Amino acid sequence: MTIDHPYDIGGNGRTATTDPDEHVRDMIEQLLLTSPGERVMRPDFGAGLLELVFEPGGPEAAATTQYLVQTALERHLGHVLTADRVEVAAVDSALVVTVSYVVLRTRTRDVAAFRVPGGRP
Fold this sequence. Notes:
With 121 residues, the protein is an alpha+beta fold. It is 27% helix and 29% strand.
């Protein structure tokens, strides 16, 4: 078991934990929402999706975001997972990022979707 992200207190009054496959999903979320330069000891870490909050949306933003996400996943989490497909869509003034991936340790396939508010469709 690993510490759950975001940090939380479990029903037993202790630090909440999660299973290893859910932890991989948490790692993807951390990567997507962290801006490069935000982490002192790893300034290159992150995809910087929150920086897109005030950018115009549309197909250009979706294509750029897809490239950013795919590159960040390969660079920072390539030792943990293989990203099969990254899809980005502009929906209701937000970007919805869907990542289909395989956890390398268990060969488990999974899909995770993240909604990043902002932009204009």
